[in-house]
Design goal:
The chain is of the alpha/beta class. Helix content is about 20%, strand content about 25%.
């Protein structure tokens, strides 16, 4: 029998009560929020439970919501997959914009090691307990986090760029 989303939701609510909230089905993926202080317990439960068996961390990424309330300015989004029943879920954890920190899950899923490093590199989200949290794609000397919305999309000081070559001209020729 296939794993139903109602079973997933019931097991999570029975186990964690109000730590897991806002269940919604989006494009055939059950999505829900988890209190950021409990992410490792929830992920471990999803992985180890004999019925749920979410045995693969497909993806982990960051999101920046600069206009949100201070306690929800960042999010870490986890995508997990149960290969046995071919079921996917999405977990969202919202973080404080002043101090975006969350526990690492790299001790539960080795695949999350580099994904957490990438999320740190681009968003500045700290994964507490990560074995080697340092930049992975950008230079170590970089002081900004380029995927944050306050980071400018273009360098206004560039002199080697001619907008005419990119279709950005104000001429009406």
């Amino acid at each position: 029998m296939a794993l139903e989303t109602s079973v997933i939701q019931t097991k999570l609510v029975d186990q964690f009560d109000t730590i897991v909230t806002d269940f919604v089905q989006l494009h055939d993926i059950l999505t829900f929020e988890v209190d950021s202080n409990s992410i490792t317990k929830v992920i471990q439960f999803l992985r180890d439970d004999a019925t749920l068996r979410f045995n693969f961390m497909t993806d982990l990424c960051g999101v920046h919501y600069p206009d949100a309330t201070p306690d929800r300015q960042f999010a870490v989004v986890y995508h997990m997959h149960n290969w046995i029943d071919n079921v996917r879920i999405r977990i969202k954890c919202f973080l404080n914009g002043e101090n975006p920190e969350i526990d690492t899950v790299s001790n539960l899923f080795l695949s999350s090691n580099w994904q957490e490093r990438e999320t740190y590199d681009f968003y500045g989200i700290i994964f507490k307990g990560h074995p080697q949290l340092k930049r992975i794609l950008n230079m170590d000397e970089m002081t900004s986090f380029p995927m944050r919305k306050e980071f400018p999309m273009e360098d206004g000081g560039r002199t080697d760029k001619d907008d005419r070559f990119f279709g950005r001209t104000t001429d009406n020729c």
